[in-house]
Amino acid sequence: MDDRLKTLLHEIAANQKFSIEEIESDSDHIHLLIECMPQHYIPSLVKGLKGVSARLLFKSFPELKSQLWGGHLWNPSY
Description:
The chain has three helices and two strands. With 78 residues, it is an alpha+beta fold.
């Protein structure tokens, strides 16, 4: 699942015209170093990464939703 998440995040970033320079994850969190243009609005980038990745991960791993507290993959903050 970790590898799939990292692949998804890189794909989402490429589609949105920014790049993830570094990515590290642990059992319950992830750190990203993002390079983007000044015109990008960081909260929108994060919202897109979280929303699309959650939808696609739940599609690939349906059992994941039942294992999470409240069925949410990401914390609402960033």
